[in-house]
Amino acid sequence: MNRFVKVGFAALVLAAAIYLYYTEIKPVVIFGLRSDYAHAIPFQPVPAGLTSLKAESCGQCHREIYEEWKTSIHARAYDDPFFQAYWKKDKHMWVCLNCHTPLENQQPTLVKDIPRGRVEKAEQVPNPQYDAEYQKESVTCAACHVRDGVILGPYEDSAAPHPTQFDPNFRTAQVCYRCHNVVSGPAQFYNVGPCGTYAEYEGKFFMQERGFICQSCHMPEIDRPVATNGPIRHGRQHLWRGGHDPDMVKRAIAVQVKADREAVRPGERITFTLTLINAGAGHKIPTGDPDRHFTVEFSVEDKQGTVLERQSATMGRWILWQPAILELYDNRLLPLASRAYEFGYRVPEQAEGLILKTRVQYHILTDGQHEMLRTKYGLTADDPYRFVVYERDFPLSGELTAALNNSDRPSVSSRQRNEMSCQAEG
């Protein structure tokens, strides 16, 4: 009997410990709460001289900037199908809105207190200033540029029909910090936070010695009038292309394919080496959401398209999500780093028509997660979540020299290549 009592008591203690762990220690979201994004940006009144905070109102004078913003992921951060599906999975947790619709003006509730940092226990009250239409503008103009009735910007000599103020943060990466440096929370052991692009970049060579900031790639420089009929100024495009844009991902990488011999001979083994290079990003690739990854794929096919042999490798982060979040492995590429992937194949005596297919794909999430979000949480089935960023075929008969010499895919502009070579030589 004593033995049964002890086992029962131990089971009770274990159950209590598990209950306390999941209700008082382990957060219900996959990130920690840093003070500056634990709350929405406080309510912003309409500055004098403007009729509204809405982007369309800003676009009456800042037309080109407004048109660029409309094409950006910032403008779709709330309606983005991936966000909506994940947010539904997370039971529409309010804290997610603090980056996807960051202004109090855009949020249906006001958070008065977050006891013990537990987001599920937050004290919320209805927001009388909530504007449902404004929420759909996601990361809108005022999220970055309006504070306390004043328009903030990067110029010290602005002349406009509304109050303006120079903010030096617009000339640094600091303006990106709030939402692109999400940190770890209790029982979360990431090497870098779950969306820690800023932390991957902060203090590195690109910022300190070359003068690169986030905007250098994500908001390209341009000379034009900032407002209609205004003077031509040196400014930036409001595009923010990134991990959802195939062309931006292609710009970040360079690919080289080499073989250990110049000609393919039947009966001999030939080894191909595909080298993937982070040639155009000032942070790790892939970056942002922990689910993002690359796959490097080799396959041998005959002239009928039958796959005779296949090999693949993955580059990304491997994270244990339960019972605690633990980052097990990270083989992503730092800026200018490279990794070589080898594929060996013994060429048969009859090699006529055989080809080696090489391919690099970029994935926003895994196939399994995509299927789960599609079937359970309303993600549209045709929404693209993976892209081919490099693909080339090589004949497995005859000379390889010409094909290999043409295999390198230019990935970055000449200006970027010069900048990267400067660092490599340094």
Automatic annotation (TrEMBL):
Keywords: Signal
Listed transmembrane segments: none
Ranges for domain Cytochrome c-552/4: 58-111
Region (Disordered): 405-426
InterPro entries: Cyt_c-552/4, Multihaem_cyt_sf, Multiheme_Cytochr_ET
Pfam families: Cytochrome_C554 (PF13435)
PANTHER family the record matches: DISSIMILATORY SULFITE REDUCTASE SIRA
Protein name in UniProt: Putative pentaheme cytochrome c
